[in-house]
Amino acid sequence: MSKFVVVFLPNEAKAYEATRSLKELHVEGSLTVYGMAVIARDVNGNLLVKQAAEPGALGLGVGALTGGLIGLLGGPIGVAVGVGSGALIGVMSDIFNAGVGTDFVKTVSEKLTPGTSAVIAEVTEEWVAPLDTRMDAIGGFVIREWRSDFEDERIEKEANARKAAYAHLKEELTLAHEDRKSKLKADIAEARDKLDAIAKRAQDRIDQFKQETDAKIKELQDQAARAKGEAKAKLDRHIAEVRADYDRRSGKLKQAWEMAKEALS
Questions:
Q1: Is residue 52 within 8 Å of 27, Cβ to Cβ?
Q2: pTM of this prediction?
Q3: Is there a single domain that holds both residue 158 and residue 256?
Q4: Does the pLDDT of residue 171 top 70, yes or no?
């Protein structure tokens, strides 16, 4: 599994120094960097993206997390931004897709004070010491969060619940009086649309997750090709872990897709 690291720095110049250190650690093989972004909070409390995540599959995780943080914490009024306008739904979707918890978001909000900057990166690391030591030397403070699969679990649970609700409505229709059938048919049509939607979400998530996984494996393989001895063995272990994580998580999503399609067939 990969994790997100956020390095808090006293200013923007230090943030770019931190990005250079992360790239050096990647070249050395001390860790693997998949994506990276730089954000800063100005003196008025506004949160700005100074360096966006890299385009392509490797940057998807950092891009989702950065977008979610900007949406939630982007202005002095914090999470109030977007409430009532529907914007918050998209913001929370980014956070869920990134796979981080509310405690992590709260810590970022508290640590990223006006005038400071932060580097957001998705990494695989064997030990925390190489990154922590390098960041300590430039005045950086590091927090970490494993990427969770609770969004995949949520899709699976929602598919199961919608399948059950759809079956219940169809059963009720067979027993209903004529004056109730019109309303029940409308409810059934709505339930079908929701099953279609959850099946599409599951498939989209599978496709995105495969793109990310393939890109991560390629990055690890490129590092392993340059490494020797224990360093190469470590990277080979990480490749196996990424593949196993993909099999486990995609299995949940495929089950959600199959449940929805089975109910609709």
A1: no
A2: 0.86
A3: yes
A4: yes
Token output for 79 = 């999470």
Mean predicted confidence (pLDDT) in 140-148? 94
What is the per-residue pLDDT across 114-129, written as a single tens digit (0 to 9) for each? 999 999 999 999 999 9
Instruction: Please give the structure tokens belonging to residue 52.
Output: 């966006």
Residue 244 phi/psi, 5° resolution? -65, -40
Rg over alpha carbons for the chain, rounded to the nearest Å, is 22
Residue 217, H or E segment: helix 178-226
What residue type is assigned to position 71 of the chain? G
* Cα dihedral across residues 258, 59, 248, 88: positive or negative: negative
What is the number of domains present in the chain? 2
241 pLDDT band, cuts 50/70/90, is: very high
Regarding whether 129 and 142 lie in a shared domain, the answer is yes
Domain extent, residue 256, equals 151-264
The number of C-alpha atoms within 13 Å of 63 and in the hemisphere containing its C-beta is: 10
Picking from 148, 167, 194, the residue at the C-terminal end of a domain is: 148
Residue 84 pLDDT class (50, 70, 90 cuts): very low
How far is residue 202's CA from residue 196's CA, in Å, rounded to a whole number? 10
Pairwise CA distance, residues 49 & 219, whole Å: 25
Residue 231 and residue 138 share a domain: no
pLDDT at position 18, please?
A: 98
Is the domain of 142 the same as that of 160? no
C-alpha 185/C-alpha 154 separation (Å) is 27
